[in-house]
């Protein structure tokens, strides 16, 4: 299945490679990352084109893996019109029908940061985001651009989850989701709900895809992405159906 080709050429942009560093997902491997020069201040069209080529956003930076000896990171996306929620996912949507959802600009909010810090301390104390800080949060998840959004999930006014995403011309790009790890909320599967909510929002907006970032077959932390079917993968410059075994 072919994708729409990028409408705006990117050949004149400048890119930089990082030095090899420890891979965040596969133990014992080194990774190299290709970054768009942050001084380029890409237009909306450039971001749209780079997203089709597998680039992601983190803060102000657009990047993608560029490792010489490894191609384990695969860009994946959900084709919105072809997606059909599983029985489990339909039950999950019904279970969370009492939540209210609000879209906001991706600006700093103390309430968001408090939830983020609690989430990182509780769920990722062994990761590279620990310890959380205001500066780390701002650099990672805030951006004063019209395409950068935050989707809030509230239960009777209580903030229980936030999903950062970008609204592109050809889809929504999921950036990061954090949520309240309280035991009484576990059955709500708020991380999965965030993806389903982006699919529903893309459908309402008439956007064809939801981009889920990178999927690594050997990485257990990314296994959840296989539950969204069908799933498409970037193969060179073309998107095609990804056949997975769940």
From TrEMBL:
<dbReference type="InterPro" id="IPR007471">
    <property type="entry name" value="N-end_Aminoacyl_Trfase_N"/>
</dbReference>
<feature type="domain" description="N-end rule aminoacyl transferase C-terminal">
    <location>
        <begin position="111"/>
        <end position="235"/>
    </location>
</feature>
<dbReference type="GO" id="GO:0004057">
    <property type="term" value="F:arginyl-tRNA--protein transferase activity"/>
</dbReference>
<feature type="domain" description="N-end aminoacyl transferase N-terminal">
    <location>
        <begin position="21"/>
        <end position="91"/>
    </location>
</feature>
<dbReference type="InterPro" id="IPR016181">
    <property type="entry name" value="Acyl_CoA_acyltransferase"/>
</dbReference>
<comment type="function">
    <text>Functions in the N-end rule pathway of protein degradation where it conjugates Leu from its aminoacyl-tRNA to the N-termini of proteins containing an N-terminal aspartate or glutamate.</text>
</comment>
<dbReference type="InterPro" id="IPR017138">
    <property type="entry name" value="Asp_Glu_LeuTrfase"/>
</dbReference>
<protein>
    <recommendedName>
        <fullName>Aspartate/glutamate leucyltransferase</fullName>
        <ecNumber>2.3.2.29</ecNumber>
    </recommendedName>
</protein>
<keyword id="KW-0963">Cytoplasm</keyword>
<keyword id="KW-0808">Transferase</keyword>
<comment type="similarity">
    <text>Belongs to the R-transferase family. Bpt subfamily.</text>
</comment>
<dbReference type="Pfam" id="PF04376">
    <property type="entry name" value="ATE_N"/>
</dbReference>
<dbReference type="InterPro" id="IPR007472">
    <property type="entry name" value="N-end_Aminoacyl_Trfase_C"/>
</dbReference>
<dbReference type="InterPro" id="IPR030700">
    <property type="entry name" value="N-end_Aminoacyl_Trfase"/>
</dbReference>
<dbReference type="Pfam" id="PF04377">
    <property type="entry name" value="ATE_C"/>
</dbReference>
<keyword id="KW-0012">Acyltransferase</keyword>
